[in-house]
Structure formats: structure tokens, C-alpha cells
Write a structure and sequence with these properties.
- The structure is a single chain.
- This protein is an alpha+beta fold.
- Helices cover about 20% and strands about 35% of the residues.
- The protein has two helices and 13 strands.
- It has a four-stranded antiparallel sheet, covered by helices on one side. A three-stranded antiparallel sheet has the order 1-6-5, with helices on one face. Strands 2-3-4 form a three-stranded antiparallel sheet.
């Protein structure tokens, strides 16, 4: 058995799950998520516990077993608590501004970058530090993808640390050039 796949998923209070016509729907206080898992995986819902069973012991079934269980667990966590990624902008003149459904980024280029905020994602700034952007939502994959796309506009560089980085990310810093000694 898969170590991840065999673990039952206990739904938090206020979260309901239904599985009809090959579509799993999980509803909670923050919203609703739907997924169509692989039809070979058997999903059993009993009160507030979801278990995933696999049909056989083939390599594909074993990998799908753990994957399906993890995706369902992330859906349950997302609709009850949500997911958050924090980004930090470092550099002179580097800033961001949220305007409706767009994020305007000034990252040292000759032009500002306009990023269209995806549906289901909420962006806000930290009240204490203005250079921190908080990406939140109920879909774990979408939150991570959005944060990665924003970071990709200007990845942090190793000499001064300028750019967009995750708040908990450590940038391995390099020493710059040193002046040559004169004889």
C-alpha cells in the first residue's frame, strides 16, 4: 500500500464532499472546488472521512493512489483554511501596486509590467512592510503558479539580492569583484 494513499482524509468541520458522475465536489466556508479524479481510483465518502482505494498494484495505480489522495486533501484544506504565499520585492525603485484586477510591477525595466490577476486569487500588501505581497486563494496549485509567475518577472540576483523572492527563500549571496592589488 502507498503510505500517503492509504491514509484517510478527515474533513474539517463545515466541509462537505460529494462524488457524482466522476466529479468530486468539496464545499467549505471559503468556497467550492471540483475535481475529476482518475476513474480507476475508487473514492469512498463516509460521513466526514474520505478514503481512496486503488484497483491493483501496478506502478501507475500506486502513483495515482498517492496523488489522488494528496489532491483531495489539498482541496479540503483549501476550502476550509485557504493557502498563502508571500513574496518580497527588494531593490531601489522596485515596487508593486494593485489596481483592481491588475498588478502593476516596477522592477527596474524600462517599462512597467502589468500582470492580470487570475480568477480565484486575491492579492494584498502587508500593512507593516510595503514591499511584501501576499498571494492567497483556495486552490493550492493556482496560488503557487501565480506566485511563481510574479517571481519570474525578476528573479533575485546573487550579488545584491535585488528582485522578487519568496519571503522564506534564502538567496545564496556571492562576493563581488575585488580591486586588483598593485605591486
Amino acid at each position: 500500500m502507498s503510505r500517503v494513499g492509504k491514509q484517510p482524509i478527515t474533513l474539517p468541520s463545515g466541509v462537505t464532499a460529494t462524488y457524482e458522475n466522476g466529479i468530486l465536489t468539496i464545499k467549505g466556508s471559503k468556497g467550492e472546488l471540483q475535481m475529476s479524479p482518475n476513474p480507476e481510483m475508487k473514492i469512498i465518502i463516509e460521513e466526514s472521512i474520505i478514503t481512496v482505494k486503488r484497483p491493483g498494484d501496478s506502478r501507475e495505480h500506486k502513483s495515482l493512489h498517492g496523488l489522488t489522495r494528496s489532491l483531495i486533501s489539498n482541496m479540503a484544506t483549501g476550502v476550509s483554511e485557504g493557502f498563502i504565499k508571500k513574496l518580497e520585492v527588494n531593490g531601489v525603485g522596485y515596487r508593486f501596486q494593485i489596481q483592481g484586477k491588475k498588478l502593476n510591477l516596477s522592477l527596474g525595466y524600462s517599462h512597467p509590467i502589468e500582470y492580470e490577476i487570475p480568477e480565484g486569487i486575491e492579492l494584498k500588501t502587508d500593512e507593516e512592510k510595503k514591499n511584501i505581497l501576499i498571494v492567497s486563494g483556495i486552490d493550492k496549485q493556482l496560488v503557487g503558479q501565480t506566485a511563481a509567475e510574479i517571481r519570474s518577472f525578476r528573479k533575485p540576483e546573487p550579488y545584491k539580492g535585488k528582485g522578487v523572492k519568496y519571503l522564506d527563500e534564502h538567496i545564496h549571496r556571492k562576493a563581488g569583484k575585488t580591486a586588483a592589488k598593485t605591486a
